[in-house]
Specification:
two-stranded antiparallel ribbon, 135 residues, four-stranded parallel beta sheet, 6 strands, alpha/beta, 23% strand
């Protein structure tokens, strides 16, 4: 597996929909996408289901994990890291659900990782905070 992406979710289904749409519109898709929901309620599950049905290339494996109790982003990060250690991907992207990705985000990040010694410092070029992030 080359790319494992883990998205940490807590409420805000509209923001999540935009995040997922931006991931699915990428020129290079993650091989596996983990969505870790921190007890957000049924609206988030509906958004995930709808976005996944509409995605243009359903070749990536998808895991939707709903935690029964809100334990925070650090717990979601711990879960994602455990999964990454077990799956051993070449690249691991822990992501927040309030981030919008440019269409070339994963492709560019992997290219930078592979072609420059400073690659790990360049992740800021691939997207931006959702406009609702500050509201």
């Amino acid at each position: 597996m080359n790319i494992l992406a883990a998205v940490f979710i807590y409420k805000r289904p509209t923001v999540l929909k935009h995040c997922l749409d931006s991931i699915f519109a990428n020129t290079r898709q993650p091989d596996r996408l983990m969505l870790i929901d921190d007890d957000s309620g049924p609206e988030v599950g509906y958004v995930v289901m709808q976005a996944c049905q509409e995605r243009p290339s359903p070749h990536a494996e998808l895991d939707f994990i709903t935690k029964p109790v809100n334990r925070g982003a650090s717990d979601s990060g711990r879960m994602a890291l455990q999964q990454a250690r077990a799956l051993y991907p070449k690249y691991f992207f822990p992501l927040e659900a309030d981030y919008i990705f440019r269409p070339w985000a994963f492709e560019t990040a992997v290219d930078v990782f592979e072609s420059t010694p400073e690659g790990k410092l360049a992740l800021g070029i691939v997207g931006y905070d959702h406009p609702f992030f500050y509201n």
